[in-house]
Amino acid sequence: MELLCLGFFLLSFAVSVVFLVVMAGRFLSSIHRTVKLVSPEHRQLSPGFVWYLLIPGVGFFLAVWMVCAVAASLRYQFESIKEQQPEDSYGLVAGLIWAYSLLAFVLVTGLALSINLSSLSTLPINALCLTIYAFFVSAFIGWIAYREQIREYKSRLEKHSATGRIIVRTQEELDYGDDIGERKPEDDGRS
After folding, report:
1. Cα gap 183→171, rounded to integer Å
2. pLDDT tens, residue order, the chain (191 aa)
3. In this structure, is residue 120 part of a structural domain?
């Protein structure tokens, strides 16, 4: 039984590492691009902040704050263009389910790996394995829901950005090369 539980712990660790790689590649990039589409005056975090979630240990705690800040940014943006809808949660509920479940999964898995399982009877080991599994499933479902909601908001913002209803770059961002298009040389009057 202990070997089975240890195998489950190792499998859950491997899956969480793969999950982090996928999250870093696509998920955080999607959130980054979504926040970048929000007008600077409505942003509650900088677009680059989402990459801080990759910091080991701290990133799980920052995820909770990031979800709240992204939701507030989206809400302020859609309210400013009179595009808010009553059923919009701006990803807050699904994001908090994902972030808190992932945090709990990591903490409980870390606790389980740090205790001596051989000193426990079968019932606590089974309960611990079930708890870890429940947090993992909850985090995975929350992640999928949050990812889809962010994609939806991103496409809505892209539509408004294309029509010019949203100005997504500050002068500072344009000055430091965060613009998308090519720069045109300035005419200094020497020609």
Report:
1. 13
2. 566 666 777 777 777 777 767 766 788 889 999 999 898 888 999 888 888 888 877 888 898 999 999 999 999 988 888 887 878 889 999 999 999 998 888 888 887 777 766 666 666 777 777 888 888 889 989 999 999 999 999 998 888 877 776 666 655 555 555 545 554 555 555 54
3. yes
Residue 183 lies in a domain: no
Both tokens of residue 154? 């991103």
Q: What is the pTM of this model?
A: 0.72
How many domains are contained in the chain?
A: 1
Give the type of residue at 167. Answer: I
